[in-house]
Structure formats: structure tokens, C-alpha cells
Fold:
Amino acid sequence: MLTMARKCFAMLDRPARRGLSGLAIMIALGSILEAVSIGVLFPVIKVILDPGEMAGVPWIGDQIKDSDSAAVAPVLIAGLILLFVAKNGFLIFLTFRQNLFISLNQARFACEFLRRFLAAPYEVVMKRTSADVVTLLDDTISRVYQTAISAFLVLATEFLVLAGIGIVLVFTDPLLTLGAVVVVGGVGLLSYMWLRPRLSAWGEESLSLRREVLQAQQQSVAAVREIKMYGVAGQIEADFAGIRHAFGRLTGLRSAMGQVPRFVIETALVMVILGGLASLLWAERTPAEISAVLGVLAASAIRIMPSSNRILLSSQQLRFCAFAVDKLYDEFRSSEAWLRSASPGEDKAAASPGGTRLLTLEGLGYRFAGADRAAIEDLNVTIPHGASIGIVGPSGAGKSTLAMLLMGLLRPQQGRVLVDGKAIGDRPLSSRLRVGYVPQNVVLLNDTLRRNIAFGVPDSEIDDTLVVRAIRGAALNPVVEKLPQGLQTVLGEHGSRLSGGEGQRVGIARALYRDAELIVLDEATAALDNESERRLIDTIDGLRGQKTVVVIAHRLSTVRRCDQILFMHDGRLRDQGSFDELRQRNLDFRRLVDLGDLGQPLPDTETA
Structure:
């Protein structure tokens, strides 16, 4: 438990630690008030029953010696009520502060972890599924804050409260207090030891099942068309039901176990009170003494029972979320290295100082971890400013890896990248050259077209002049004109209002909005029909001479008009030249041309 506490504390930032220090002071004050409110019960009850008991007490005895019990009792009762009202008012305030501390810091930590995830090397991101990431950002962080850290605060509060009440009871009846500690503590410890291994196993299994449930939900929604078409809804439902049932059963068991401590503690406290009454009668104590002691015991039991219940429940919660704490702590530590290695200029490329912006790749090499061979090996290419470069080759040739290297998502393991003859070193290319990216499936937000073009820019900071310029450059004007609210039209989930080709042009507009000097299109036409592909090719042609465009494609019709084509195979550059040059001299390239039925001349744009 101490190791878990150390890990949780290590993941708190400086403001959270300051807030925790303030809470600790308030918790200590609250426990003092709890002890005082219980402690005054014994003398107050004795005075009410026998005012002579306080006659020897300095000042207090002088105040009440000439008063009868009828006059003293209302004053003492009123004072006692005010004390409990003040104490409980403070504890209500403390409860709000504790819950706000947990919830607000959980939100801040989730934001911080998203920042760390986005700073992670792309090799790390590629290995994560969306369900893994969502489970980590949602369920795992929630367990650590709402369960683990909250449980530690509860333990600190309740242990202090019980310590204060214990001191009061020691002064009231030492032997009875010792018996209460042995009975209640022993019963609680035995129940915790019995549950501990089960809770640890349930916690790990629950987190795994939660991820599987989330993944099944995402896949079912994403594949709804295929599910309907193939008539496999029954099997999909059965698979989901199996996972959801297992998760539900585990959740039910966990909830039921959370109720057990209340019954265990209640039984133990009843045993203590009845045993205490028997011992007082056996010791032949006076009725007034018995009433006072039982009054304190009853008041203490009212407070001890929920405190003991919370302690046992919090101990259960800590065991249940131990796996989540370990997992999040490991992620937290590894992500610190990601933040340290991130370059300060990685988010935004430096403004172009002018010049040719010549891009040179010298001896570039990259091998994925665990791969048998290099994905890119000894690649040497020069890309002039304003040129359109096509990259083609069979599957596994290294085209997409080269695209990720150009975009800075991967960093070369061999060779170097130069911009205008200057090596960029370990920094990504995007730190020296503004890079735009248009993938096969452009991610379109369920938001306005305007905000989709100015992707990630706050609404108040969007430059509409740049938006209009980007629309013109991406040939999006016809799309804007047909949309009911123009730029303010919400595109729907996954851009349902747009066709595939229109979505690709939105991706180009995003790059143009940021005045990208290099635009990489990675299989951007793979899912388009011939007409949409032709229109996109016309849009790319319109950028020639203004932007450097790199087109990665399986469909050779997409790259036919490019100034240069790089033909890759097994991670190596096998040949380069214009479309016609490669078709004439390279047999492998000619085979691809024949398979694609591209032997006929491409119609002119004007007559197509």
C-alpha cells in the first residue's frame, strides 16, 4: 500500500501537491473536531444527570454550583448542538473540497496524459489501438483518481478520526477501549486479508474486460454496414454479450463486496457495546456512570461504524485498482522520456525565409523494431521546390514509410535530410519546412467546413482570408456553393455530407490554409472513382510550381502527370524519371503499367 501511495503521489504535479497539503491540514482539523464533539459527551451527560460531578472543576464548578440541573441542562444541550452543527458544517465543506480536488485534478491529469500521448514517437502510437488509448485516458485514470487517490484521502481522514475517538474512549474506559480495538480491528483485518487476493485479480481482469468492451462497441458501430450485409448480427451480438456479461458479473461482485464491511463492522460494534454493558454491570458501576459510558459508546459507535466501513471499503478499492495504478505509473514514467525528446519547434515549422527550399535525402534508412529487413535503405533523392513527385511500387516497397519520414512522424535511423543544403539533424523535417498531409481517409470532424479547413485552430483565431484562399487552391468552391449554409455547414460524422473526392480536397485545403510548402498525399485517390480521381489530379496539377507535392499511390493514373516518379521495391529506390521514361526502360514498372491498363494516352483535361 505504501508503494501504491508513493506512485500516486509521484504522478501529482506541483499544484496538486499544494492542494493536497491544504487538504491534509483541513483533514487534521476535522478529526480534532470529531474527537472533541465525542469527548464532551461524557462530561455533559454526567453533569446533566448529576451537576455535583462538576463542582470541583475550576470556573465551571463556580458557574453551576448555585444552579439546579433544570437550568444547566438546556445551556449544555444548546452548546452541544452548536458544536455538532459547526463540526458537521466544516465536514460538509471538507467533503466538497475533497471531491472537487479529485475531480478537477483527474481532468487536469487526463489533459496532461493526452499531451504526453500526442508527444509520443509515432512508432509508439502505431502500436496502440484506439480502445487502448481511450481506456487509459478514461477508465484507468478514473480508477487512479476516483478510487485510489480518493481512497487514500478517506483512509487519512478516517484513521485520524478513529485515533481521536480512541483517545476519548481511553479516558472514558481503557479496558473497554482495548476490547473494542481488538474485536473491531481483528474482524476488519481478517475480512480484508480474505478479500485481498480476490480484489487484486478482479482489478486486473476488470481493466482488461473494460478495454475489450470498448473495442467491441467501436468495431460494431464502425462495421455496421458489413454486419447487415453479411447477416452476422447474431454472432456479433453473441460475442459482445459474452464480454459484457463477464464485465457485468465482475462489476456486480465488486459492488457486493463493497457492502460486506458495513455488516461485518456493525456486528462487531454490537458485540462491543453489549460486552461493555455486561462488564459495567459486572463491575457494579453506578447507573449514572453506566449511562454516561453507554452514551459515549453509542455516540462513538455511530461515528466509528461508518469510519470503519470506509476504511475497509477504501482498502478494498486500493487492492482492486492496484493494477491500474501500476499501469498508469509505468505509462507516466515512459512518457516523461517522450516529453524530453520532443523538439521545441516540433509543433510548428519555422517561417519560410524564402530561397529555393530544395529538399535532399541522403542515404536515408529506417528499420522498424523486430522487422527482418529495413523498410527504407540507402535512399538518395533530390526534390526541387514546386515539383510534383510520384512514389510508386508494389506493396511493402516502403512508400508509406517514406511518407512518414517526410512528414516527420518517423525519424531516419541512417542518413540525413537537408533543406536548402542545410542538414536538419535530429529534428523532424516539419521543424524546417511546413508540411501538409492528405491521407487515403481524411479525418473530417462533425463540425463546420470552416473549422474543418482550419483544423485545430480556435474559432476566434481562424483567418477567413486564408480559408477562402485555401478553398480556391483546393478547388472547393463548387462544394461550398452546394452546401446549405456554405462554410458554416456541419459536415456530419466522418464528413457524411461530402463525397470521397470532396473530402480529399478538404485535406488539401487544410494544408493550403497553413501555407504548407510540402504536401504529401498518401494513397489519397485509392478509394475514389475515376471521375473523382481526375478532379483531384487536376487540383494537384494546379499546385505545380507553387507547392512541392509528393504523391504516393498504387494507382499509376494518379502519378502519370508528375514531374518525376520514384519507383521503389523492397525499401530501395530502383529507378526514377518521368512516367514515359520509366515505362520505356524499366520492365517492372512497365508490368505495373500494363496491369493498370495505362498504355493509352491520358486525355487532356480540357477535353476529358
Observations:
- The longest helix spans residues 69-118.
